[in-house]
Design a protein that fits this description.
This protein has 394 residues and is α+β, with helices and mostly antiparallel strands. The protein has four domains: 166 residues, Molybdenum Cofactor Biosythetic Enzyme, Chain A (3-Layer(aba) Sandwich), CATH 3.40.980.10; 58 residues, Molybdopterin biosynthesis moea protein, domain 2 (Alpha-Beta Complex); 83 residues, Beta Complex (Molybdopterin biosynthesis moeA protein, domain 3); 68 residues, MoeA, C-terminal, domain IV (Beta-clip, Beta Barrel). It contains seven helices and 26 strands.
Amino acid sequence: MISFDDALALVKVAALPLGPETVALGDAHGRILAAPCIAQITSPAGDVSAMDGYALRDQDLSLSTPFEVVGTAFPGTPFEGTVRLLECVRVFTGALIPGGADRVVVQEEVQRDGSLATMLHPSTARRHIRQAGLDFAAGDALLPAGRRLDPQAIVAAAGADLDELEVWRRPRISILGTGDELLPPGSARLRRFAIPESISYGVAALAETWGAQIIGRHRISDDIATITHAAGEAARSADLVIMTGGASVGERDFSKQAFIGLGAEILFPRVLMKPGKPVWFGRLGTTLVLGLPGNPSSAMVTARLFLTTLLAGLTGREPSHALQWRRARLASPLPSTGVRETFLRAYADPDGIVKVDNQDSGMQLELANATLLVRQTPNSPALAAGEMVDVIDF
């Protein structure tokens, strides 16, 4: 077996971006930029009003006399003339400031009577004008390569007049679930001793959250020939194949054997960790293969640790981005650990971190109750309430 840190290091080495592609702005949400986002225009293009009000010459405010309203400026429809002595122009937020004007008095501080406007003790603290290029200038790099395109970044890219963006390609993932006892959810109740297959749904949801594209999800029987055929078919079209189950040392655990028979290189066969010791990782040609345990909690813990690290790198991020450990205080004690790196399912309450009661690898309700993973190093002593531990969001 290999240590957790050594296994994680091998995953990081393999987690290289898959190559860039150009996508429409409307399809870019959640993607990772492969090239900087360069502004195609200046924003704002000219000096514009930051408020609804009246544009005038600042020096005229001291004259304490009504102004003549000589026109109106709307966003996209500017006033074409020039503001002169004791003249003003009705302006709306985003409208270009007319020539000659250098202040906007907000409409709440103006009394309008036909074509005359009286300034009622206007505030002089701000001129309410956004200077040309205040946001950015044409040619500026607004978003760096590697930035995830969240909603805020999408706004910036659109404001830069970009309708397409260069992003890293999404990994294509095929999930193969083994287990003769498993049936699709909704049908297990119809066969005695059948179990609803749950892991592939959770793994697929996690993979999509981290930027992957699920191109196949198949349940296959515990038969070496069947698994080998399915593995070969999946590897031909996927960047990453995820095997769930069949990873231990039972008589029908054929996952690694099937891939080895196809010529796969196994980068690590098991990991000295709890839960998830049967997790394995390999490569078949250019296709990566991650084998997860067949118990739901073990599968989701190892997927959170290894799959998210892999996907972070494949989608163009730094692989270490996936595991941002932070220190947190225990609300209840933890027992000592054995020789394996241990990851406890836990949650936070007002007093600190609490592990879920049942850490059995097959528990699914307790899995749903867990929002954190607590990391304990091998041979960790028992920890008392109030001591600090490393945690990540689960």
